[in-house]
Amino acid sequence: MTDNEKLTISEFHEKIGKQTNGGIWAVLDNERPTKRELENALELAYTSRYHWKQVGTLTNDVRAVYMISRVFSHMMKGDSAVHYANEMLELAEKAEREDSSNWRNFDMPFVYESLAKAHAAAGNKDECKKYIKKAQDLIDKLTDEQDKQICQGELDKVSC
C-alpha cells in the first residue's frame, strides 16, 4: 500500500487478508523454518482470518482456518493442529452447502490434506492415513490439471 493509496475499509480488509495469507506460504514451503518464522506465520494466519471474517465468505474462513491448522502442523503442535483442522472440516461442510458460489472443487482435498497433516503432527497414524485416502480420492477426480498438481504436491508432503 502506498501513502497515496485510498481504500475503503472493505478493500483494506481484503487486501490485508490476501497479503497475510500469501505471506505464510514461504514459511510452509521451507523445509526447516526457524521457530521465529513459524511464530510469525502463525501471527499472519490469525491476522488473515480476522480480516477475512470482516469481509469474506464462509469459504474464505475455511481457507483461513486451513492456514492456522497448517502452521500448527508445521510447528508439530498436533493438538492445536487437529483442533483447527476439525473446525475447518465443520466449516467446509457448511460452505459446500451454503457458499457454493465461492466453494471450489479443490477446497475439500485441501481440507482433507490439512487434516492428514494435523493428525500426523499429533501422532495419529490411522487418522492421518484415512485423510490421505480421502484427499487422494478427491484429487483423482479433479479435472483442472493445475489444481490437481497443486493439491497433489501438498498431499505428497504428508508423512504419517
Write up what this structure looks like.
- This protein has 160 residues and is an all-alpha fold.
- It has one domain (9-155): Serine Threonine Protein Phosphatase 5, Tetratricopeptide repeat (Alpha Horseshoe).
- Helices cover 77% and strands 0% of the residues.
- It has seven helices and no strands.
- The chain has helices spanning 9-28, 35-55, 58-74, 78-98, 107-122, 125-141, 145-155.
- The mean pLDDT is 95.
TL;DR?
77% of the residues lie in helices and 0% in strands. With 160 residues, it is mainly alpha-helical.
Sequence-ordered SSE layout with sheet pairings:
Elements: H1 9-28, H2 35-55, H3 58-74, H4 78-98, H5 107-122, H6 125-141, H7 145-155
Helix pairs in contact: 1-2, 2-3, 3-4, 3-5, 4-5, 5-6, 6-7
- Uncertain spans, ≥5 residues at pLDDT below 50? none
Number of helices: 7
Return the domain count. Answer: 1
Output the structural class.
mainly alpha
Query: Could you tell me the radius of gyration in angstroms?
Result: 16 Å
| Fold-level CATH name | Serine Threonine Protein Phosphatase 5, Tetratricopeptide repeat
CATH architecture term:
Alpha Horseshoe
User: What composes the largest sheet?
Assistant: none
